[in-house]
Write a structure and sequence with these properties.
The complex is a heterodimer of chains A (502) and B (488).
Chain A (H helix, E strand, L loop, with lengths): L1 E7 L8 H12 L4 E8 L14 E4 L2 E2 L16 H15 L7 H22 L4 H5 L2 H14 L6 H14 L1 H4 L7 E4 L5 H12 L3 E5 L3 H10 L5 H21 L2 E4 L2 H9 L30 E5 L8 H14 L4 E5 L7 H13 L6 E5 L4 H6 L3 E4 L8 H8 L3 E5 L4 H5 L4 E3 L4 H13 L1 H18 L2 H15 L31
Parallel strand pairs in A: 1-2, 1-5, 2-3, 2-4, 5-6, 6-7, 8-9, 8-11, 9-10, 11-12, 12-13
Chain B lengths: L10 H8 L6 E2 L5 E2 L3 H12 L5 H10 L4 H8 L4 H12 L17 H5 L1 H6 L5 H8 L1 H31 L3 H30 L4 H21 L3 H21 L4 H22 L11 H6 L2 H23 L6 H4 L3 H27 L3 H36 L5 H25 L3 H21 L6 H26 L8
Antiparallel strand pairs in B: 1-2
Helix pairs in contact in B: 2-5, 3-5, 4-5, 8-9, 9-10, 9-11, 9-15, 10-11, 10-13, 11-13, 12-13, 15-20, 17-18, 17-19, 18-19, 19-21, 20-21
Chain lengths: 502, 488
């Protein structure tokens, strides 16, 4: 079996949860041959993961490099492009309730429009040139003014067209040849899967660790892009996300939390199997002792999504109550986040926590970090199903986390889950655990047991193997294991329409 | 049945622990004290008012700590999505009126216009250099340095601007620094080859290297908009050169020393300006340059053809026809205006994009701007040309060939403007093809005459090729300048 695994901004060029999962998946299914198709920035990125033996090829598709027009037919786009692009614009600009029948029809039309653009590029025409031509800009301004009275300058249209041209580049790349295209997330990765499906009929599996669309929304909340550009780009992402759910033969949310967003955007529950990230128990041994001082540990990258400011503010309250307490923040600072790391150091200084709260930097093994703490903390404002929580639980550490993504499903009753951005609440949870050794140890033991029962890597790999066999016809959906554990394939419960809750 | 409870830690527990969450505060007795939806709307209005749809509001609410349970228990809605729809509805549609972004401040006209005069500053030292090196070494050294410097500085600044545009200011500085430093041995080595093949004096190498140092320093300081430093550092040398012209041989050593010293100081100042641009936090230079190398080859070819086109026409007259050689001065003086208009054209076209609604309105407006700027560039060089012709006439040096070559300079002023704008649009293939065609046309005509063309016919042929270049570039510009994407 040949599997093409599509990624964006993660494996093999970056560390992080999705990259860990990609590496686990490839190494964990050694009887499969793999090709990785990363959507890269400009193709010059260096791999930070050692290639497994069964990884045959990495074929990057640069999204933001120079325009790939060499040898392609340019010139005035013809009617085939115009009709597809106008349908594309109509689909993204038509305001619809995402759960409505009209929205379902709209998603279908959007997929057809994408296919038209794909065929245009596959026919030898220069799709990038066409998407940014004055003809396409005229289509965009006409479509906009068909819905809005005002709000779009030509500069906005050029900016939006430029962004969309880059983001649609996977459609202009040669389709991948494999038995399965497995997209590690929704969004632009699914364009690779769509192209393969249209060209070769390749079945598609889509995993969602976080919710791609939700993260796009959050990334634009504070963006100072003109409103019209934001409308066009986010509407594109929203419609593309719905199209991704429509095209995927199997959809694997990595937590039940993710299912909510997927269902909201038109995903078919009959094609959804909730998968949970798993860890190798041997790699996360039980911590036998605790540090001498009450210590809160954070393990992860230094990133605004981790909301370390709330963690530091919460620790200030803890420190006021327990002057001997320490906060140790383990993890590297990705390029571009240096200013955020500096802001964390400044906040530590401003709150008088120098020496008590420290940024420890990258650590060779996360186990080292988990074992260094009395408890493990995570204050993220957005997560999928974070490894750091499951790994800490495997090490026998009690977790205090914000209630984001699938954290609640992972922690259950073995730790504390608090509202995001709630420093006093977070501090209260930490203090309760730090003061009560009995409770802390009891929950830690339960956490370890929970991981052993539900969140092992083998569970996760077995589940994906079953899904692969299902989408390629080797196994009927009705032969899938019963939903008796999250590490196995879980048949979804069909929820009643949300409106009925009102 | 799922073996994993969907948020097994009850939200009420979380809220008790929370102590003071802004929504759905729970008490130990499980009494839920909630804010109303109206309160929520007012609290999230700054963000929700800019949301594109209800899903964005849902994402924002979730990131602010509102879960399905909070939506249900605290506000009485089925989940976050339904609550978000209500918030979105109450906040109302985002303000769709166009806020026309403030135009960036216009480029400094004075800084750009002075470029032409700054390019001429070293010429004040040439008479002193002539006295030391002799005519042959001086001329060959200048031609060599002009060619190498044109290509070297053109490629380096293009790459630096590309890197700067991608936010890599440190990498841009490194490119400029290393190109400036490496340019000196490259020129010296080329000089040795020229000396070996032409039997010119070894002073040629010193002359060419000094001129190269000036050209690279000028490129760096103009890149950083520090023309004033270039002027200040070069004035002593230029003044000494003028003093030598006035006072004669007794000031020759001083003119040479101050001239060379000014170039050295200018070069040092330029290198200093490439320091301290945050290089430590950027990707490796090799990575940053990788994506640009394909087009860099075309850029280098374009600069080489540009240099060859102008220098080949001047070359045969450099030793004995001052009137024809000096005809290029109006073009050099006018280059400041050409660069200014080319830079302003970018500002103007981007401002146009922000004020029009549809591409067809942009096409009409931007073509008018092209016509205006071509006229300004041609006019500026024409004024300088008229002054030169008057001066040559007054000195009784005016000839038909000088008038033709001066006219060619005027035409090239317009062509160079079109070329700069086309280069900014990345149309290097067309630029190279046009320059190669015009260069070849003039060379073929020259070669076709068994005994060589007379200066009048030769300069007339060059003027014809300049007109052809002007037409090729302006036609291409008019054809593509209306494509709005080029002005992003």
């Amino acid at each position: 079996m040949r599997v093409a695994l599509v990624s964006e901004g993660t494996y093999p060029y970056a560390m992080g949860g999705v990259s860990v999962w990609c590496d686990q998946l490839i190494r964990g299914l050694p009887d499969y041959r793999w090709e990785v198709v990363p959507l890269s920035v400009d193709g010059t990125e260096e791999r930070v993961w050692e290639a497994p033996d069964n990884l045959d090829r990495v074929r990057a598709i640069p999204l933001w490099g120079p325009t790939p027009v060499r040898g392609r037919r340019s010139g005035r786009p013809g009617p085939s492009f115009a009709s597809s692009y106008e349908a594309f614009l109509t689909s993204i600009l038509t305001p619809l309730d995402p759960r409505s029948h009209e929205a379902a029809v709209n998603r279908r039309q959007f997929v057809d429009a994408l296919r038209g653009l794909f065929e245009y590029g596959a026919d030898g025409a220069d799709l990038s040139d066409a998407l940014t031509s004055n003809q396409a800009l005229t289509s965009m301004t006409d479509a906009w003014h068909g819905v809005h009275a005002d709000g779009l300058t030509l500069a906005d249209a050029v900016e939006a067209a430029w962004l969309i041209e880059h983001m649609l580049r996977p459609l202009a790349s040669p389709p991948v040849e494999a038995d399965i295209v497995h997209s590690s997330m929704n969004g632009l990765c699914m364009l690779v899967a769509m192209a393969a499906k249209w060209r070769y009929g390749t079945p598609t599996v889509m995993s969602e660790h976080g919710i791609y669309l939700r993260e796009r929304y959050l990334s634009y909340v504070q963006d100072d892009a003109p409103h019209a550009v934001k409308v066009l780009v986010l509407s594109f992402f929203r419609t593309l996300a719905g199209a991704g759910y429509l095209v995927a033969d199997a959809l694997a949310p990595h937590s039940s939390y993710n299912r909510r967003w997927q269902l909201q955007n038109g995903a078919d529950p009959q094609r959804m199997w909730t998968m949970y990230n798993g860890v190798e128990p041997d790699r996360f041994p039980l911590a036998e002792v605790e540090p001498d001082e009450p210590t809160i540990v954070f393990m992860g990258r230094i990133d605004p999504l981790k909301d370390l400011h709330t963690l530091i503010r919460a620790f200030a309250l803890v420190h006021a109550d327990m002057p001997g307490a320490r906060l140790r923040i383990f993890g590297g600072t990705p390029a571009g986040n240096e200013a955020y790391a500096d802001s964390c150091r400044r906040l530590i200084g401003e709150l008088g926590l120098a020496g008590a709260a420290t940024l420890e930097g990258r650590v060779d093994s996360p186990v080292e970090a988990y074992h260094a703490g009395s408890i493990v903390a995570l204050t993220s404002i957005s997560e999928g199903f974070p490894y750091t929580v499951v790994e800490a639980m495997a090490c026998g550490r009690t977790v205090v986390s914000t209630n984001v993504g699938g954290v609640g499903e992972a922690v259950a009753d073995t730790g504390f889950v608090v509202s995001p951005r709630d420093a006093p609440g977070f501090a209260a949870a930490c203090l309760r655990l730090l003061h009560d050794a009995g409770l802390r140890h009891r929950l830690a033991a339960a956490a370890r047991e929970r991981v052993m029962a539900l969140f092992t890597l083998q569970h996760s790999l077995d589940a994906y193997r079953v899904v692969y066999e299902h989408v390629t016809g080797a196994r009927s959906v009705w032969q899938l294991p019963p939903a008796d554990g999250p590490g196995a394939v879980e048949r979804p419960t069909v929820l009643p329409p949300i409106g009925q809750h009102r | 049945m799922s073996a994993v409870p969907v948020v097994a830690t009850p939200i009420a527990d979380a809220l008790v622990l929370g102590g003071a969450p802004r929504v759905g505060r729970a008490r130990p007795d499980d009494a839920i004290e909630t804010e109303t939806v109206d309160d929520l709307v007012e609290r999230v209005r700054p963000l929700a008012a800019r949301a594109v749809d209800a899903l964005e509001v849902a994402a924002t609410l979730e990131a602010g700590g509102i879960t399905d349970d909070v939506a249900r228990v605290g506000y009485g809605y089925a989940d976050v999505f339904v609550l978000a729809e209500e918030v979105h509805r109450r906040v109302g549609p985002a303000d769709a009126t166009v806020a026309v972004a403030a135009s960036p401040p216009p480029s400094s006209a004075l800084g750009d216009v002075t470029h032409g005069l700054l390019y001429l500053l070293p010429a004040a030292v040439f008479p002193a250099a002539l006295a030391v090196l002799g005519r042959r070494s001086l001329v060959l050294g200048l031609v060599l340095a002009a060619f190498v410097g044109w290509v070297w500085a053109g490629g380096a600044t293009w790459l630096a601007y590309r890197l700067l545009g991608r936010g890599h200011a440190g990498s841009a500085a490194r490119v400029l620094r290393w190109a400036a430093v490496a340019g000196l041995p490259v020129t010296a080595t080329a000089s040795v080859v020229v000396i070996a093949t032409t039997r010119a004096g070894y002073g040629l190498a010193a002359m060419a290297t000094a001129q190269m140092a000036f050209q690279m320093a000028a490129a760096v300081l103009m890149f950083y908009r520090r023309e004033i430093w270039l002027f200040a550092a070069m004035v002593p040398g230029a003044a000494a050169g003028v003093a030598y012209l006035v006072a004669g041989d007794r000031l020759l050593p001083m003119a040479v020393v101050l001239g060379a010293g000014s170039v050295a100081v200018t070069f040092g100042i330029a290198l200093l300006h490439t320091m301290g641009h945050g290089e430590g936090v950027e990707p490796r230079l090799r990575d940053g340059m990788g994506a640009e190398l394909g087009q860099l080859r075309l850029v280098l070819l374009y600069t080489a053809l540009s240099a060859a086109y102008l220098l080949h026409a001047q070359g045969r007259y450099m030793l004995d026809r001052f009137d024809i050689v000096v005809a290029v001065v109006p073009l050099i003086v006018g280059m400041g205006v050409v660069e200014w208009r080319a830079r302003r054209f970018g500002d103007t076209s981007r401002a146009l994009l922000r004020t029009v609604r549809r591409p067809r309105e942009f096409v009409a407006a931007v073509r008018i701007v092209v016509a205006r700027d071509v006229a300004v560039c041609v006019g500026a060089v024409a004024i300088a040309a008229a002054a030169l012709i008057a001066a040559l006439h007054a000195a009784d040096l005016l000839s038909a060939a000088a008038v033709l070559m001066t006219t060619a300079s005027v035409v090239l002023g317009g062509a160079y403007f079109a070329g700069f704008v086309l280069a900014n649009m990345g149309r290097f293939a067309w630029l190279c093809g046009s320059l190669a065609t015009c260069l070849a046309a003039h060379l073929v005509l020259t070669a076709a005459a068994p005994r060589g063309l007379s200066p009048v016919v030769d300069t007339l042929a060059f003027l014809g090729s300049a007109v052809l270049l002007f037409l090729l570039l302006v036609t291409a510009l008019v054809g593509c300048v209306g494509q709005a994407r080029h002005h992003r």
